Amino acid sequence: MSKKARFELVEFLPYALNQAADALSLEFQHVYKGRYGMLRTEWRVLFHLGCYGEMTAKQVCEMGRLHKTKVSRAVAALESKRYLEREEVANDRRHSVLRLTKAGQSVFEDLEREARAFDARVRGDMNAQDAQVFQRALLRIAGLSSRD
Amino acid sequence: MSKKARFELVEFLPYALNQAADALSLEFQHVYKGRYGMLRTEWRVLFHLGCYGEMTAKQVCEMGRLHKTKVSRAVAALESKRYLEREEVANDRRHSVLRLTKAGQSVFEDLEREARAFDARVRGDMNAQDAQVFQRALLRIAGLSSRD
DNA sequence: GAATATTAGTTGAAAATGTAACTAACAACC
DNA sequence: GGTTGTTAGTTACATTTTCAACTAATATTC
């Protein structure tokens, strides 16, 4: 007979993943948008610099899988908020190194605290092992896992 | 000393989840956009009707957690493609019931096949138990889990 | 049953994103 | 050392999304 079971939209990965991502993003957005009027790409750039230290826009694009125009605009916005500054590189004036200012650093630290708390809260409802399984699956799907 | 470990951006849930969701969405987009020129919200609306049968725009909004303007525009687009039609409701002319046309139904069936294959492929690399853990975690985070 | 409120859906303007073309600086080749 | 190609980043324009105001229909309240 082989009557196919109904397709369960909510179990379809691209759908479920997006719903989950949207739900969390929206929540975390309250923090960075509410407190600092930042956009999604802005906190991402800020976090890249805060977590991994100074780097060029290109490197932010690669690590964050962001399009260069998005990064370009986010950098301009963060710069006008005085959260980051560019330093010209002596031997290649095409790019410059981005670095958080003192103000940017403290915004980062504040948001980092929030992010840790947020993450802990969401993961809190999971047992440790499931959390690990979940994490690994996510990274693999995102193509971010180290070995693959 | 309690020196805090560096914050790992790629393990931060809102970030990792978005990266994963983006990766899959982009891939699946090739199918519905490439074959039928549909937008994200359009396939979602199409799938809601295809999976769960006829319903009003309002109901699509609630089930899919989509804003009414998005749905309104997606419905208009699908209608102009002749993939769905509206039926006026006798006793309340504010809303109408949406239903896939024959053409819409067959587009749905085609995409559903693709979706099943796509999903199977992504899950294929996971063992069954992990897949289940992953699924449950996702639904819970998305706030879509039945019991909560 | 007229006045007000609510609901479903649409429309228009503003913000954000994506795409493509562009500029400026460097590299490579002859 | 000048032509061609490549790279980092910006700018301009089209598409999409978001937000707020609007319309039309029904519900509520007095």
Furnish the topology, listing elements before pairings.
The structure is a homodimer.
Chain A: H1 13-36, H2 40-52, E1 55-56, H3 57-64, H4 68-80, E2 84-88, E3 96-100, H5 102-124, H6 128-142
Helix pairs in contact in A: 1-5, 2-4, 2-5, 3-4
Chain A binds a DNA duplex (30 and 30 nucleotides) through helix 4.
Main sheet: strands, sense, barrel of chain A: 3 strands, antiparallel
Q: Identify the biggest protein-protein contact and residues per side.
A: A-B, 50 and 50 residues
Instruction: Output the structural class of chain A.
Output: mainly alpha
Q: Could you spell the SSE succession of chain A in H and E letters?
A: HHEHHEEHH
The spatial strand order of the largest sheet of chain A comes to 1-3-2
Q: What global shape of chain A is seen?
A: elongated
The N- and C-terminal alpha carbons of chain A lie at a distance of 40 Å
- Could you estimate the helical fraction of the residues of chain A in percent? 55-70%
Q: Which value, in Å, is the CA radius of gyration of chain A?
A: 19 Å
Low-confidence spans of chain A:
none
Count of beta strands of chain A: 3
> Quaternary arrangement of the chains shown?
homodimer
